[in-house]
Write a structure and sequence with these properties.
By secondary structure, the protein is of the alpha/beta class. It contains 5 helices and 8 strands. The strands form 2 sheets. The chain has a 6-stranded mixed β-sheet, with helices on one face. A two-stranded antiparallel sheet has the order 6-7. It has one domain: Peptidoglycan recognition protein-like (Lysozyme-like, 3-Layer(aba) Sandwich), CATH 3.40.80.10. The radius of gyration is 16 Å and the shape is globular. A hairpin with a 5-residue loop joins strand 3 and strand 4.
């Protein structure tokens, strides 16, 4: 199993950290809006110690195998505030890391660590922005801290971080680039599981309120999204790329089946 402004520019590799710095001015607002000395834009929701009350959903999907962040982050290199939580998850935004595709899957932890250093280090975000990352072999990695099974508020979709999950496909999936089936299946597995807890059909549409006018929608506007949307649905960006956007209908259908719908 397993970012007009520019696309999300998280290019992994030791030589690419400089590119992360060059991209920072263009994509920092696109994902988290957090700058040095600012508070993160996730005004939520509830304190880190308060775990949301869960109700049993009739469409719970199997819990996918997820590699914990400890496998790519040996220690907390950068100081960060406590995780923030929503009361529930209502939608998923799919991203790509806009990085080279020809990597060895065994190198995925190093790639994720480099993304983290670019976001939490070079750009002074509070943590890596994505809740989960998936490599081309279908391995799922925990991204943002706070708990795999918790509704952690990410920093991945400006204006729509609350009540959403950010899943990043490791690679660059622009028009015409094949998206590995194992990656599609793994993304669908996370979608099914996370939306299933709130009994959200992955094929449905949901209404989300924009918390930031830097998105496609002014602050306070309620926008209609698919429960599984691409980053470009809520922000001016090519992320997650034309090829991955084209796979979202299939991801919705696979996820719905995993929920028993």
């Amino acid at each position: 199993m397993r970012v007009f402004r520019v696309a999300l520019c998280c290019v992994p590799g030791a030589s690419a950290l400089g590119l992360l710095l060059l991209c920072a001015a263009g994509v920092d607002p696109a994902v988290s809006g957090v700058r040095a000395g600012d508070q993160p834009p996730h005004t939520s929701l509830m304190p880190a110690a308060a775990a949301p009350v869960r109700r049993i959903s009739p469409h719970l999907a199997p819990y996918p195998s997820i590699v914990p962040r400890s496998k790519w982050l040996a220690r907390d290199t950068y100081r960060r505030p406590p995780a923030r939580f929503a009361d529930r998850i209502e939608a998923v935004f799919v991203h790509h890391t806009n990085s080279p595709n020809g990597y060895d899957c065994a190198d995925a932890p190093r790639i994720i660590s480099t993304v983290y250093r670019g976001q939490a280090g070079a750009k002074h975000w509070d943590d890596i922005g994505y809740n989960f990352l998936v490599d081309r072999c279908g391995t799922i990695y925990e991204g943002r801290a706070g708990g795999i099974d918790q509704p952690v508020v990410g920093a991945h979709a400006q204006g729509f971080n609350r009540r959403t999950v950010g899943i990043a496909a490791i690679g660059r999936y622009t028009e015409g680039v094949p998206v590995p089936q194992r990656m599609i299946d793994a993304i669908a597995a996370i979608v099914a599981w996370k939306l299933g807890v709130s009994d959200i059909d992955p094929r449905s549409r949901v209404r989300l309120e924009s918390s930031n006018s830097l998105s496609k929608y002014r602050k306070g506007t309620t926008a209609l999204f698919y429960a599984v949307s691409g980053h470009s649905d809520g922000y001016q960006t090519i992320c997650p790329g034309g090829a991955l956007m084209a796979e979202l209908p299939a991801i919705r259908e696979i996820a719905a089946r995993l929920q028993g719908r």
